[in-house]
Amino acid sequence: MTLRTGTSSTGTVHRYYTCSTCARKGKSACKGRSIRMDKLDGLVTDHLVERLLHPERLAVLLSSLKARRADKAESQNNASWRFSAK
Q1: Sheet containing 2-7: which strands, arranged edge to edge?
Q2: Is the Cβ–Cβ distance between 21 and 28 less than 8 Å?
Q3: Nearest to 32 by CA among 63, 72, 76, 2
């Protein structure tokens, strides 16, 4: 997919995602359709929010992050203790 733009008769610029083969070689190379950038971006964002931002999933992610940070802090403390003990 590639970004293409078009300007309406009122001067409004519209952005579209289109097949890059179609953009380079013309409609005879690919019958792919163009889709407005704002529409596709909205669909993708909504889908990601729906799939990723569930409270249960966020709780698991935050718990994992907290555990990794604690492990890292502990290993840094152990490394500094070993260094100062020498």
Answers
A1: 2-7, 13-18, 35-36
A2: no
A3: 2
AA identity, residue 1: M
CA-CA distance, 28 to 86, in Å (whole number)?
A: 74
- CB neighbours of 5 closer than 8 A, spacing ≥ 6? 13, 14, 15, 16
Report the C-alpha gap between 60 and 72 in whole angstroms. Answer: 18
Q: What is the pLDDT of residues 27-52, one digit of tens each?
A: 788 877 889 999 999 999 999 988 88
Structure confidence at residue 83 as a pLDDT band (50, 70, 90): low
* Whole-structure pTM value: 0.55
Average pLDDT, the chain: 87
**The tokens of 63 are what?**
């718990």
Q: What is the DSSP letter of 33?
A: P
